[in-house]
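Lecture notes, unit on protein representations.

Consider one protein chain, 332 amino acids long.
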Amino acid sequence: MASENTPNNPVKSELQRMLPSPSAQIAWVAFAIVFAWFYWTSILQVLRIWTHNEDYQHGFVVPLFAIFLLWFRRDLFPKDTNHGNLWGLVLLAMAGMMRWAAVYFNFGSLPEYSIPVFLAGMALLAGGWQGLRWSWPSLVFLLFMIPLPGTVEELAREQLQKAATQLSVFVIQTLGIPAFAQGVVIQLQDRPLRVEEACSGLRMLSLFFGICVGAAFLVRRPLWEKLLIVASAPPIAIVSNVIRIVVTAIFYQFAGQWFPSLNLETAGETVHAWAGYLMMPIGLLLLLAELSLLSKLLIAPMQRPVVVGQFATGQNANTGLGVPIVSRKRRR
């Protein structure tokens, strides 16, 4: 038989602490029913896109990480969940207006973009401003599960294709391999290498934006460093994609000379596919290198010793010598 002094499970204790009152539980159940009623078709739509579109298969992980953020920030969970804020009704009305505008103006992605707004209204209405402060990073992160509007997606894909082509040609030429770009086609010495839409890097860009934003929410850094981490997502995604294209070009350039009997088309597709699998580890290594570089370049300011009385002696950390410190009296 376990002793009465045995400490409880810390996870269970935290969950019990966060459990709202019975009346608040009834309110949350009502909110969940309303949410499922209004957004059932939108949820099925995003699930269908996650399943069939490779650019958004990371959407399955987004809600799980959003829940983890709620647990990670559990210290900010409102202690009193019985006093909500009626401003949450404004956010709920805004979410309803977004759904109406989506139907009236035939804007396909707007219902999905109203999901975080609706959930923010629920958090504010049930937990007040403290509840919104606790949950807002998770609500922002949910935006990464929503597909981009068609026009924005096509524009981003086109620009990423051009950037990847030009940068890849620059690196290939720097390595001494003759190459030039014609649109999104890299013309090598013996064959053309086309940068397809699937290889534009849009999937990596969406994924790395999510990773960088998640890292910014987790690390304890100044705000400007967090913004720098988020802004580094496009360069990391582009560099990873350029490495993939350059590796494929090098293979096509030299594999025929080294292995004359090799089927270049089949082998090239295999190399291109495996280079794509390495894009994620390469991007993560670049992100870790950036975090390490920031921690080495920037040093936190040291706190000055507290002086009590008219004279005090501070201990030098390097030499161990006592340094007399004279406190200045305020002028009256």
